[in-house]
Amino acid sequence: MIVKILSSQVPQFWEAIKFAATQADEVNVENTQLYLNELLHALLNDKAQCFTVLDDNRVLVGVLITRIEIDKITGERFLYLQIGYTWKSLEDKIWKETYEIFRSFATNLQCKYILFSSRNPAIWNRMEKLGFKEKIRTHSLNLD
How far apart are CA 117 and CA 39, in angstroms? Predict the structure, then answer.
């Protein structure tokens, strides 16, 4: 089951959100505090949305963070799936249900598309099965 939590509920889930976010986004230790401050601010001010994945016993098994963004070139609104993290492997059925929920959420908000980014090849494969196509690849080279 996917449940959208209200901004007022974020403090109750903050420890789980912090863990999921820093793991999913692979945040460097030296950047953790700034990263989490920005995320908390966005969640508390409804600039980002938090969804929880609960199993049949209503135990937390996943966290998803989204943001409604505007493409700076086209001006189109899109749903950015920023973070997806689960503590246990989810069946394809759950991935499909989750996709349908976010597709509906994006459509209701008049988004033109859904965008996600991940460093995890398993996530890429799952999302491709749902119809996502690779749009861009980003590479980084540390200079220090």
Answer: 16
